[in-house]
Task: inverse folding
């Protein structure tokens, strides 16, 4: 048994080598750069000291956190019903509907941002429609609302797929059996469908949350002056001032933050599948 | 790309130009060790520029005529970035021989030693206006930052003309936009507070932030990307915004009813430099000289409407483009000073971003 397990280890060697070369090594380089001074010579914690003593960092970190959490919540609440609906369709219909789920991937961010301006703006389609009924105008652009709409639009597919996979993996016999035993539809949903779907929800949530921590173009284009993300600062230090120590420091902090999020999610019910554990 | 170029040179009828492009392609594909050191045939210039209409104009006015005259092919690649230049210089593997630069990169690049000094025995810098001459870079042309508005939404008497007007929200009501970066915004704030352009440098930073405090509640959007500056006015989300003259020109040509104020322009230079350690330094210097020629400058500015960097060219430009060309000599106009910004960019950006968040 152990021998067979050991033998299959050879199959992962290409993937391991690849990941070490293109992921682990550069990441180690970034971590190293965050603790060495600008000339790459001596050790220095100045990068961390500067960042932790700057109010800018705390403010931006807070807005990064709230924006990520909000857009994840919105994505989840829109994606779950969508995935549930898709899971109930015949395979052919589902294949067609999936194309619509993937549409957001096919347009560039800048083009989408312009489209959202036309849709959400003060003289945009939504506010024009509201004005027709004597309502509005609602402030939908250049604030958090704009950011959340723009980000969720991109993130929903990442939420739909893991949830859909997990819903489709559920044996229909379970629900049939529960129904025979006299459970109502609501009870079946809350006692069987939803708990069995938790690993999918957790995977989707983690994926979306970590992706949104790294967003910066959408908040810059659709947000207001306060919707600044940590990635904006990384970008600024990397490309404008070439202060790569500060950029690396921020990247390490963001990475650690994402790791903490992943670990925390793995502790909640249904989440242990994220770390390879068995769900009970 | 490379393979296709070399293949073209072999299969199609071989003119001198296509042949040289083919050679250039082959050179790119050859490992460095096989390239003979001094062979003239391997000379070429890879220049990183901003792409788009400006790159097209440069190709027509400079790149193609240069190849015609010298036989040295010019290959343009899109998207210069200071970070990438730094990596190329540090790793001694220079892929871009020359680069186009924005204002804020000039002094940072000089401090890091990323550029070759301009060889003044080859390049007659006195053909250029003084503001275009530096030890390591030359300005190829000047652009203008202006305020723009839609002719449809603002009648002529409701359009602010100076930055002081722009700050006057009672007299000139409307939704306003500024950029979400401190460069240029700092200067605008000082002009708005009544500092005369010729006394603006060295900038009074405290006064600038006090002036920004006054306009902050009235700014609808701190615009992130340059295309947005005209797009938001066009879409009716802003009534007025800071943008660039060339953007207004582009919008007008596309039939969008945008207009701009003829006063209080911020005149900035577009720079070009040779990357430190390039194998094609002598070709790069000849290319730099080519850019100083008045007839080439005239051809370029007639296409784009930018202001020429060479002296005596401004008055020769076509009459129809003339209203769109910024005037560095204009009394109310400010010439942006890259040296004042040297070493202050990071500190002021931090302060500005913090200010935006509060």
Result:
């Amino acid at each position: 048994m152990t021998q067979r397990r050991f033998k299959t280890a050879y199959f992962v060697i290409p993937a391991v080598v690849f990941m070490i070369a293109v992921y682990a090594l550069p990441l180690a380089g970034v971590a190293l750069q965050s603790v060495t001074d600008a000339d790459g010579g001596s050790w220095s914690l100045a990068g961390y000291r500067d960042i932790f003593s700057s109010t800018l960092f705390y403010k931006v970190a807070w807005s990064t956190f709230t924006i990520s959490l909000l857009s994840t919540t919105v994505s989840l609440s829109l994606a779950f019903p969508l995935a549930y609906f898709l899971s109930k369709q015949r395979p052919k219909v589902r294949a067609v509907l999936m194309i619509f789920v993937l549409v957001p991937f096919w347009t560039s961010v800048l083009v989408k941002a312009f489209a959202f301006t036309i849709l959400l703006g003060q003289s945009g389609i939504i506010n024009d429609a509201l004005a027709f009924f004597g309502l509005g105008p609602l402030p939908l652009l250049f604030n958090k609302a704009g950011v959340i709409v723009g980000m969720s639009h991109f993130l929903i597919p990442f939420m739909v797929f893991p949830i859909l996979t997990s819903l489709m993996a559920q044996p229909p016999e379970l629900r049939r059996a529960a129904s025979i035993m006299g459970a109502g539809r609501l009870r079946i949903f809350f006692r069987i469908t939803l708990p069995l779907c938790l690993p999918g929800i957790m995977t989707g949530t983690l994926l979306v949350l970590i992706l949104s921590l790294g967003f910066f173009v959408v908040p810059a284009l659709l947000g207001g002056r306060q919707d600044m993300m940590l990635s904006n600062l990384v970008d600024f230090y990397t490309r404008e001032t070439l202060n790569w120590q500060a950029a690396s420091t921020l990247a390490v902090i963001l990475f650690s933050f994402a790791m903490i999020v992943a670990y925390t999610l793995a502790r909640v019910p249904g989440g242990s599948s994220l770390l390879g554990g068995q769900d009970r | 790309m490379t393979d296709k170029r070399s293949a073209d040179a072999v299969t199609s009828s071989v003119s001198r130009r296509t042949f040289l492009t083919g050679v250039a392609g082959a050179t790119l594909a050859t490992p460095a060790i096989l390239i003979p050191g001094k062979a003239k045939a391997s000379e070429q210039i890879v220049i990183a520029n901003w792409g788009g209409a400006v790159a097209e104009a440069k190709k027509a006015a400079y790149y193609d005529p240069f190849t015609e005259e010298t036989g040295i092919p010019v290959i343009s690649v899109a998207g210069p970035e200071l970070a990438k230049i730094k990596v190329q210089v540090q790793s001694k593997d220079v892929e871009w021989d020359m680069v186009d630069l924005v204002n804020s990169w000039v002094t940072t690049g000089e401090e890091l030693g990323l550029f070759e000094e301009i060889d003044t025995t080859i390049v007659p810098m006195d053909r250029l206006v003084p503001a275009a001459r530096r030890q390591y870079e030359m300005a190829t042309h000047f652009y203008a930052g202006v305020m723009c508005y839609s002719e449809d939404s603002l009648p002529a008497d409701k359009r602010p003309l100076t930055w002081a007007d722009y700050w006057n929200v009672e007299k000139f009501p409307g939704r306003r936009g500024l950029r979400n970066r401190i460069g240029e915004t700092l200067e605008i704030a000082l002009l708005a507070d009544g500092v005369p352009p010729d006394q603006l440098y060295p900038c009074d930073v405290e006064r600038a932030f006090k002036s920004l405090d006054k306009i902050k509640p009235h700014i609808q959007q701190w615009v992130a990307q340059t295309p947005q500056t005209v797009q938001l006015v066009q879409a009716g989300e802003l009534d007025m915004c800071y943008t660039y003259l060339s953007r207004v020109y582009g919008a007008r040509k596309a039939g969008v009813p945008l207009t701009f104020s003829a006063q209080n322009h911020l005149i900035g230079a577009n720079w070009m430099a040779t990357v430190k350690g390039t194998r094609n330094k002598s070709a790069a210097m000849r290319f730099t000289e080519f850019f100083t020629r008045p007839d080439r400058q005239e051809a370029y500015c007639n296409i784009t409407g930018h202001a020429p960097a060479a002296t005596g060219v401004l008055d020769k430009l076509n009459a129809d483009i003339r209203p769109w060309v910024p005037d560095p000599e204009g009394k109310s106009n400010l010439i942006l000073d890259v040296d004042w910004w040297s070493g202050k960019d990071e500190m002021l950006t931090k302060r500005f971003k913090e200010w935006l968040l509060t």
